[in-house]
Design goal:
This protein has three helices and seven strands; from the N terminus they run αααβββββββ. The protein is of the alpha+beta class and 167 residues long. It has a domain at 73-166: Macroglobulin (MG2) domain (Immunoglobulin-like). Strands 1-2-5-4-3-6-7 form a seven-stranded antiparallel sheet. The radius of gyration is 34 Å and the shape is elongated.
Length: 167
């Protein structure tokens, strides 16, 4: 009896597809991870605030300070006038809850450049009239500036921020 050269008919072994399922599963995981990496890298805008951790820790203290400030009822109106070039004046009129001018108070104006570091400066405002405090300034750059006016008397404090455009 002779055996044919072709041999018995070949059949797939049971479970032959399991390694391919494993490879396909890893392929799906890899594809999803790559998609997530691409989305994360294309939409990331960076940290929106400096010292975010420190600001988070002091959040409740800041809320308490805002409540104390609101309870004082102090109000401020800020007027800036630009003279020649980047020079100008800042004037702040402060009143209490009854509308009376605030006297014997320390007033400071912090000029902060939101787009460039290293150009910030601070001024101490002098009393020029009842409840009015003013100072001259010269900004190092044209453009947007955030002006934070801080008025303090004893333990009481008022902080007012205004955006200023210098040409």
């Amino acid at each position: 009896m002779s055996v044919g050269l072709s041999g018995p008919a070949t059949r797939h072994r049971p479970g032959w597809y399991i390694p391919w399922i494993l490879v396909a599963g890893f392929g799906v995981v890899l594809a999803v991870n790559l998609a997530m990496i691409w989305i994360a890298m294309s939409t990331w805008t960076g940290i929106s605030t400096n010292r975010a951790y420190d600001k988070g820790i002091t959040y409740n203290r800041n809320l308490d300070a805002a409540e104390r400030q609101a309870a004082l009822g102090w109000r401020a109106s800020i007027v800036t006038a630009q003279a020649a070039g980047l020079a100008g004046t800042i004037s702040v009129h402060l009143v209490d809850a009854r509308g009376q001018p605030l006297e014997r108070i320390d007033v400071q104006a912090d000029f902060e450049r939101p787009t460039h570091q290293g150009y910030d400066f601070a001024l101490t405002l002098e009393r020029t009239g009842p409840g009015t405090y003013a100072a001259r300034f010269t900004a190092p750059l044209a453009g947007l500036w955030d002006v934070r006016v801080i008025a303090t008397r004893g333990g009481d404090r008022l902080v007012v921020t205004e955006r200023l455009m210098l040409h």
